[in-house]
Design goal:
Distance between the termini of chain A: 64 Å
Mean pLDDT of chain A: 91
Shape of chain B: globular
Helix content of chain B: 25-40%
Strand content of chain B: 15-25%
Number of helices of chain B: 12
Strand content of chain A: 5-15%
Helix content of chain A: 25-40%
Order of helices and strands of chain B: EHEEHEEEHHEEEHHHHHEEHHH
Number of domains of chain B: 1
Radius of gyration of chain A: 18 Å
Number of domains of chain A: 1
Largest interface: B-C, 49 and 57 residues
Number of helices of chain A: 5
CATH topology of chain A: Rossmann fold
Mean pLDDT of chain B: 92
Strand order of the largest sheet of chain B: 1-9-8-7-6-2-3
Strand order of the largest sheet of chain A: 2-1-3-4
CATH class of chain A: Alpha Beta
Chains: A alpha/beta (161), B alpha/beta (359), C alpha/beta (297)
Structural class of chain A: alpha/beta
Radius of gyration of chain B: 22 Å
Largest sheet of chain A: 4 strands, parallel
Order of helices and strands of chain A: EHEHEHEHH
CATH architecture of chain A: 3-Layer(aba) Sandwich
Number of strands of chain B: 11
Low-confidence stretches of chain A: none
Oligomer: heterotrimer
Chain lengths: 161, 359, 297
């Protein structure tokens, strides 16, 4: 008995960078418990949220993601003791940087999700996917930014008058 | 050669006429510094594509930051696309647009630089042609505008040019006083443009006044160097290890500003931009001043110190270019001097070499 | 003032206490100055200091610019306040040792923002924005200072000096993005902003990594944005606000606005000002258990 997942005309692509000890395990638990949630998310598992380099998030947008989720262990519970504290500081700065550049920070979601919080995982993903779906395709990383040479592939008359 | 006059105040109309004729028009545009931009901003003059509703400032300001290089030798462009399917690779051609273009308000130094670029990219020398460049070149008309107020960094007269030179020009404008500009139609392409501007052209111009005006501006240049002894001094390979190179070039930081601003510099790099199994092969601007420019895969770098890289640049412009292409490599626009953050000055090198050559 | 500096430099070179004195000399035009490497005592008269001395000389203490290759045991360097902050930051990051430099501090009243704006004197019309509210006009850490060094209260918070930052923060997201997109249209990825930065010292910059290629070297929007975002991110908590990146940009793009905004964020969230302390750890390599996390779900 699952919930009905509706598909819409525009389905956002969501990238999730998660730590393996907490969030990934939480997502795993959601899976083994047969919980339904929006299938738009693609996950990249990293050993710790402290490993998540802002480069990954920029790259995700460049490759066509409409939204990015970054998630790790709760402060105090990091498997490596401190990784998530550093991540917290780094993400505070990175978020403001994106904002200053004019990139919509509503498209980046940060969360602490533990290995037991499968329900929280499904909620965060569902809510975020709905939000990004509402926001629409990524305007700042539009097609011409993500694929700068796509227009060169379109057949055009090479000889102009 | 046909000559005529045009009013300076009609230049805006001239641009409109060219746009209406379905040409891609490129003209200088000044973005003035606004109060809200803060004290660290500066007025920016660049050559940009004319878009409707915008004003352009032909003949005003001195030199646009970018020059004509980027309109012929693209900052970045795809050569082809590819897709890997198992062991097969499909090469997919890309289609570039080559609209008929006219660049208005080009300064003589920039116009002269086109011949230098042409020497490298056309098949004239090595028999291999860069078709992206040659197609753009064929479809681009250059309308030059003689300088009236060179600044302290200009040194075109030291490299066999002049502020009123028409080398590389199709249609040449020179201010002759009042609101008048003397127009010279130099090529067929220039004639085509002159025909489009027929309603604004009058009379036969004033050749005498034009020559007088040109000579008067030449007097204003203060940076004069003797370029004659340079090539021979550089040809003497003992001078390759002269102490001058390290002394003058030690402060260079390898930022690449000089090469990117220079109208004749043309180094490029090619990389594959990949996404999964698809991608493009892209050609884009590179600089010999970058520390990894001559880095070999083995780790050896023949130009391992920065001063050696600047030495290479000087040699490229004043020895290699004249040797290989019978063209000058430097047009004296002074952009490298203005743009260098540490005040490296190519004319300082010229002066040192001339002094050493004299003994 | 400059005579005292020259005398001290002469002595240091004569004693062999330093291998070289890095300072400013007259440039190739009356409005410009140039960095100079003085190795012989008789050349110290070339050293000058005035409001045209914009260059950030600690750049030459950065290992990326051949500092480690040159084999200098001890380097004398003329430092105005903001430059000495850059040296302090380099030492705090272990890029330099304090005993490798001999700092000849100079009192500074501000510098011009661009050589083009120099008209014989420094005034409100041509002063660099970083010079407003500067608390290191008398530099903090020096080995030699001509005259008395009065106490200066440097405990005040970092304040953004360019009005453009506030102007941009007042815009809507879309407008701000449109501003950057138009401004960055001119960027052709020359990396002058990187080369002129005293703190950019990675042996192989991430932009030069090719396997994989994190930042596309071509100057399309993707490549340009990823470079500037990365540069700003890598300088968070490290930028000492010399403004050289904006000055060096050949296309006159105000790239240091990112850095100014990030310095404001670092001040707001962690109360940290870079370049004031040799011991204080930089904010991204430390943490507090109660750091802000209101944006984390």
């Amino acid at each position: 008995m699952g919930k009905k997942i509706e598909r819409h005309a525009f389905e956002p692509k969501i990238m999730a960078f998660v730590c393996k000890w907490c969030t990934y395990s939480g997502a795993d638990l959601a899976g083994t418990s047969r919980m339904d949630y929006s299938p738009n998310v693609r996950m990249v598992r990293l050993p710790c949220s402290g490993r998540i380099d802002p480069q990954f998030m920029i790259k995700a947008f460049e490759q066509g993601a409409d939204g990015v989720v970054v998630s790790g262990c709760h402060p105090g519970d990091c498997h490596y003791n401190e990784g998530n504290y550093y991540a917290r500081r780094r993400n505070t700065a990175f978020r403001e940087l994106m904002d200053f550049n004019g990139i919509d920070i509503e498209r980046i979601e940060f969360s602490w999700i533990s290995a037991a919080e499968a329900i929280k995982w499904t909620e965060v993903i569902d809510n975020f996917t709905d939000k990004v779906r509402e926001l629409g395709p990524h305007a700042q990383y539009s097609d011409d930014v993500v694929d700068p040479y796509a227009e060169f592939l379109v057949q055009k008359d090479q000889e102009t008058a | 050669m046909r000559t005529a006059t045009i009013q300076k105040s009609d230049l805006g109309k001239a641009i409109d006429l060219l746009v209406q004729a379905d040409l891609r028009v490129i003209a200088p545009r000044l973005q003035p510094r606004l109060e809200e931009d803060g004290p660290d901003a500066i007025d920016v003059l660049t050559l940009v594509e004319v878009k409707s509703g915008e004003n352009h400032q032909v003949g005003e300001g001195l030199l646009p930051l970018n020059g004509v290089k980027e309109f012929l030798f693209a900052k970045h462009e795809p050569l082809f696309a590819y897709e890997k399917r198992g062991k097969k690779i499909d090469i997919i051609p890309v289609h570039h647009e080559y609209p008929r273009t006219v660049i208005v308000g080009v300064r003589p130094c920039d116009a002269a630089s086109i011949a230098s670029l042409n020497a490298v990219f056309s098949d004239a020398n090595a028999g291999f042609e860069d078709p992206f460049f040659t197609r753009r070149r064929e479809r681009t008309t250059i309308v030059t505008y003689s300088c009236t107020a060179p600044d302290a960094s200009c040194f075109c007269t030291s490299v066999d040019l002049a502020p009123d030179s028409s080398r590389g020009s199709d249609l040449h404008f020179t201010e002759i006083g009042g609101d008048l500009i003397h127009v010279e139609v130099l090529t067929e392409a220039g004639e085509a443009i002159a025909n489009l501007l027929e309603s604004l052209l009058e009379g036969e111009g004033d050749q005498q006044q034009r020559e007088k005006a040109g000579a008067a501006v030449k007097e204003k240049l203060t940076r004069i160097r003797d370029a004659a002894p340079i090539k021979d001094w550089l040809d003497n390979l003992d001078n390759f290890d002269d102490e001058m190179w390290e002394r003058l070039g030690e402060k260079c930081i390898g930022c690449g500003s000089c090469t990117f601003l220079c109208p004749t510099c043309h180094c490029f790099d090619i990389v594959d931009e990949n996404k999964g199994s698809k991608g493009y092969r892209v050609k884009f601007w590179d600089s010999c001043q970058f520390d990894h420019f001559t880095l070999h895969a083995s780790g050896h770098n023949p130009r391992d110190w920065q001063y050696k890289r600047y030495r290479n640049r000087f040699n490229c412009k004043f020895k290699i270019y004249p040797e290989k292409f019978e063209q000058q490599g430097c047009v004296g626009c002074g952009r490298c001097i203005r743009g260098c953050p540490v005040n490296l000055d190519i004319t300082e090198y010229m002066a040192e070499v001339a002094a050493k050559a004299a003994g | 003032m400059i005579e005292q500096i020259r005398n001290q430099a002469r002595q240091l070179l004569e004693n062999g206490e330093v291998d070289v004195v890095i300072g400013y000399a007259e440039g190739s035009d009356p409005s410009r100055t140039t960095p100079v490497f003085v190795r012989k005592p008789e050349d110290v008269d070339r050293l000058i200091y005035d409001a045209r001395c914009i260059n950030s000389l600690p750049l030459y203490l950065n290992k990326r610019h051949e500092y480690t290759k040159k084999g200098w045991k001890k380097t004398g360097i003329i430092g105005k306040g903001c430059d000495i902050r850059a040296i302090t930051q380099l030492i705090a990051e272990n890029q330099l040792r304090r005993d490798e430099v001999y700092i000849l501090g100079v009192p500074c009243e501000g510098v011009v923002s661009h050589f083009e704006k120099w008209d014989g004197s420094l005034h409100d019309g041509n002063r660099a924005s970083k010079c407003t509210d500067c608390d290191v006009m008398i530099p903090l850490d020096t080995d030699f200072f001509p005259g008395e060094k009065p106490e200066v209260d440097r405990s005040g918070p970092y304040k953004v000096t360019s009005p453009k930052v506030a102007n941009l923060m007042g815009m809507e997201n879309d407008q701000r993005f449109a501003f950057w997109r138009d401004d960055f249209d001119r960027c052709f990825k020359c990396y002058a902003c990187r080369e002129v930065c005293p703190h950019c010292s990675c042996n192989v910059c991430i932009t030069d990594e090719t396997t994989p290629s994190w930042i596309d070297p071509a100057a399309h929007k993707k490549g340009v944005f990823s470079w500037h975002l990365t540069r700003a991110m890598h300088l968070v908590g490290r930028c000492t606000g010399c403004g050289e990146c904006t000055r060096a940009c050949p296309m006159d793009i105000q790239v240091d606005l990112f850095n100014q905004r990030m310095k404001e964020i670092v001040q707001e969230n962690y109360g940290y000002k870079s370049g004031y302390s040799l011991e204080e750890k930089h904010p991204l390599i430390t943490y507090k258990v109660d750091d802000r996390e209101d944006f984390i779900k």
